[in-house]
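Fold this: SARP family transcriptional regulator
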Amino acid sequence: MTGPLTFAVLGPVRAWHGRSEMDLGTRQQRLILALLLARAGGAVSVAEFVDLLWESDPPPSAVNVVHRHVGMLRRRFEPDLPTRSAGSVLVRDGAQYRLRIDEQSLDLLRFRRLVAEAADSSGEAAVELYRQALALWRDRCASGLHTDGRTHPEFVAVDGERFTAVRAATDAALRAGCVHVVLPAIRLAAEYEPLDEALQARLLLALAADGRRAEALAAYAGIEHRLADELGIQPGAELRAARDGLLDHDAAAPGPAEPPAQLPADHPYFTGRRDVIAAVEELLAGGQRTTALVVDGMPGVGKTTLSVHLSHRLADRYPDGQLHADLRGFDSGESAMTPAEALRGFLWSLGVAPSAIPAELHAQAGLYRSILAERRMLILLDNCRDWDQIRHLLPGAGGSLVIATSRRRIAGAAGAAGAFALHLDVLSDDEARELLTRRLGDAVAADPAAVGEIIVRCGRLPLALALVATRSVGRSGLSLPAVLGELAEADGRLSGFGDAHADLEAIFSWSYRALTPDAARLFRLLPLHPAGGLSTEAAAALGGVPLRAARGLLAELGAQLLVEPGEGRWRMHDLLRAYAAELGEEHDGAAERAAAVTRLYDYYQLSAYAAHLLLLPQVPLPEPEPSAHGVTARGFTGRADATAWFAAEQRVLTEVVARAARRGRPRTAWRIALAMQNFFQDTAQFKQWTAVVGTGLAAAGDDPAARALLHRSLAGACYFLADLDGGLSHLEQAREIFDRLGLHAEQGHVENNIAEIRLEQRRYADAVRHAEAARELFRAAGNVRGATTALLAIARAQGWLGRHAQALGMFAQAQRQFEVLGDLHGVGTTQAWMAHTYSMIDDLPHAMAIWEQAVDTFRGAGAAHHTAEVLVAVGDVHAGNGEAGLARRAWREALAELDGTDSPVARQVRDRLAR
């Protein structure tokens, strides 16, 4: 290795010889190096190393172990150092060691120099120096080496320098008016130290200075909650002062002496919804005029509670008073309130004499808007049915705000000027636990496991949680485990809520009784679907109705009882599902329900097979039989559409496999599992692949052909998980079965898979032998694709054996054959290996050109994981040539292809970019 030695400790401990990163050995050796680097050239005693490596009870050989680790590090830094030589990098001084290091070779020293220069500068120049200094940090000092929650004081001190610099950088940026330059560093530091009030105060000030006051207010609420929750304290003076600075901008002019104040009382136990409240704050703080907020969501999700709380929170901004009306849009006992009735009440409240109120609706609305044009008022409209019911109640000009709630999405609100829709979903786990804590107090902390299960069984629906809490408080002898027991005995049915059952059933039944008979039937069948979200096609199969009819029925249900999150999928809340399940068991016969499940399984089995074919699998699967119930597969427009369908239905398909395996439909289970294998491979979901196909294998029973196919599939998952021995075991089992059944083409696939594993094990001669055996078996069976795949494996082995010209010729032949077959995956794989072979002989122009072709091919095939692998190779070549900008661009493209996954390739890319 050549080139200067450089080190990094502001994050994971790393070292380089020139551009080549060094292997720093064991964790103990990296800890020793970390402490030396944190001292930045200062001496470290052997006793300190012993304390670092062994918190207590060091072994008798501890000192010798330290000396041995130091010696191994020294030889890594100076590989040509003669035995027992002192060395010139890691030097010994009596009972101490130190690194001979300078600013050019250590990021910590560069950081300190930049901070010192920033402190001596002013204005934007100082801010830029701080930015450069803070950009050197990639994580906490010596991250990844700490265990048992213990961090060495030296590393903590270095971290402290970072946070001190962040505070100084914020102050300088606020003075210079360019806080955006260091805002990312401030955010990151605040995440690392959530209880550092001085740091959090500066985050609030920085956000406000960057025009993000609503975000700052939301951040303060989060900090306040965390301080109370974790430390049991209120924010200190500095943090409160930062908050007060934000609120000063919200002061409103005093209103009339006696404005109307009609808001219902705020709920004493209101919790959560911080994200929605923050979104409202940000919307109102923005430049766009806001006249209405329409909050929609399913029954019981807490729309009214949130809107009342929000109204109280915003009331001071509307000094001319607050109006309120329950429009009874879904009331079962009374007719819905008409707009004229609501306007009449509002006009009375605004001081208009009853005799002066016009008779016509349009005249009432005109008078109402004229009055509001001169005032700033807040109007709360609860339980709206539709746009026609509320459109006359919206203000025109002026600064008033309407907050409206509805179980339906109010379509007209989207087109109204200044009107914004807010969809309310169920609570998060943390919010649900907070709600129960506010209601039940210490009982929640005393039994967190029971609380967690109660939250799950309530589906995080605020109404259900509140009813359970009320039930628990009202019966002093009823413990939380006892409540959980009642819920568990109900098996997810509404009756598990005891006396509360009538309340929930009444709420849900109001909407159910308004359905047409066909929509009501589909509603009762929906709980038979195995997951929370379903497509229109799946609903059609479940109901046994044409697709067009299903669309109409779902639209009717979606107006009240379903949610359409997007992409043509529908979702039903768990408690509504329980209610529908009870109705189904009461009104629908067992035969009808069983037929619905069969139709649904037929749809998923046929569609999964059709989608699998478009992913261009190298290994064919047996085609499923047509449905006896007339169900057909979903139609697909191409590979991308098939991949998108698998992604959308992955959770559903996985559950179908599990349910079919449990309920005596083994062929459905293992066929869907096998149909998903190419999707799992293309999206790098190797553990999911193992789990789903493993379930299929358990269901296959005594079907030998199915078991062999499943073993071979599991071998592929093992290969990508680097479990090569496990992969070989599965392949041997598959080969034995195929041999017994006389399925020679299937044997060819197994031989080729074994060749792949031998290539990974660098047993290239064995790989050639197995690949050639596979090629002969494929040729005998007339399987051109299989024979071409085997040729590709032979070419790769020849390249690794140094026979590059021979390998390149085979790659060219394989690519032509894959192109004739229309196999984009095979073409891309061949191109990638051909490029790699050119790079092995230092023909980089050819290598780069063909890698670019491989990227285009894999993108055309929708194979993101393989696209990313090629881009990583391209970036590595650029980095090796000193082209850092091009390398980063290629690696970022690779990361974008992986779209947030945590696959081994994604981790490799993030590691490269961190350098």
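Residues 616-622+635-821 form a domain with the Serine Threonine Protein Phosphatase 5, Tetratricopeptide repeat fold (CATH 1.25.40.10). Residues 869 and 884 are 18 Å apart (CA to CA).
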